[in-house]
# Entry
Amino acid sequence: MESKTTDAVRDSRIAASVPQGFGELLRKRREEAELSVAALARQIGVVRTTITNIEQGMTTPSPHTLRLLASCKALRLTELESAEDESADAWHTQQYDPMQMVRGMDAVLNGPGGQLEQTLLYLDPQSAADWYQLSNSEQYMTAFRSKMPLDKLAERIIRESKGVGLDVDGLGCGDGKTETALMQRLADQMPAPPDLHLYLLDISHVLLYSAYRFAFDTLAPRRIPVAAIHGNFNDISKNPVLYMHPRSVRRLRVFLLMGYTFGNINDEPWFFRDLAACAQSGDLAVIDCQLVRAPTDRKDEIFANDAPIKTKRVPDAYTKFLSGPLRRHCNGLIGMKLRSELSTHCLVPGSYAVESWASVEKQDEPTRQFLLFRVKRYELEKLSECLRGLGWNTLQTWKYGPDNLAAVLLIQRQ
Ligand SMILES: C[S@@+](CC[C@H](N)C(=O)[O-])C[C@H]1O[C@@H](n2cnc3c(N)ncnc32)[C@H](O)[C@@H]1O
# Structure
């Protein structure tokens, strides 16, 4: 049970993200839809006073209630808010506190060395801009993004949905281009207007804003509502807005982890255990990941075949992005060398990590070692087996990219 103080703090945060005059807008839309308060309450599974209190401006709707209201298509709430006031669809998750995270990053980068949690790589605006540049480079686009099997993925998702509406959560959406492209393909296979909602979540304001703009501009003509959520995907289980299913309307949720986000997460089993708790039976998740170049017990082959491990070099395309946080935040830095290393200390059986390390020189201080980034590579069957033990069955996998060394998995909550 949350205390009253926590409730008050939460309500004030939510209030900051709900558009002014929302109660009036709700009343207007309800009347236009010729719905009585009782009918609307029944339809979305709340008590009547919840609706009247919001309409009269006596309470601020929680994200949970907002989502329930948005699920009533006759109200056209998300659509109208998006068209009239683009900022209306930006929410914050409860634990989102960028100031505290930036301070934490500063402390880590000025500490004795050790591992950076991957979230820290995207926190400052320049880091986010560097990621944007990297993920939109011709090389990255040609090798990976343009090759993703989005048509087949959309087809299978539609088949699994059995005609119900889809709520798609793009977790760590970056620039949102892949997530938006998938939405277009889903919409292509649904009757118009498609019963599709897109929720974009990212820790970086810079990336989230560009994702929201791109998704909104692309999807608004097809009447697909888009909401942007500033937040930390590690907190998903604490934020009903990310997983709430309206009780009265059966919809399917599809969680997306595109652009190899899955393989950067520190503890993937932990993440997917939490996600299983948030999902309902039948909900879907999509994992986009890289595959092993050789099995973990054949290290010689990994050294021979996996370029960054063979050369011990961090690929040039990544150096600006990876070294940025140290260059900008590490006080007294006089030099830094990057290198790649192999690690088989990974939690998903059969996987290994390509680690990017920085050796940092500071004035009159001993050299420090920072582990900046871990990109894990997986064996598809062992990953599926691991996910099964965490509550997720693999429905289908597709290999893609150069030498078929990337893969997309569509998994389903048991
Ligand atoms: C590897 S990029 C992938 C971006 C995008 N999905 C794509 O396909 O290009 C990882 C994304 O996750 C975001 N991210 C990293 N850690 C996060 C966290 N803890 N919570 C929310 N977003 C996070 C980053 O800001 C970045 O946009």
Observations:
- The longest strand covers residues 365-378.
- The chain has three domains: 4-71, 110-118+294-377, 141-291+379-413.
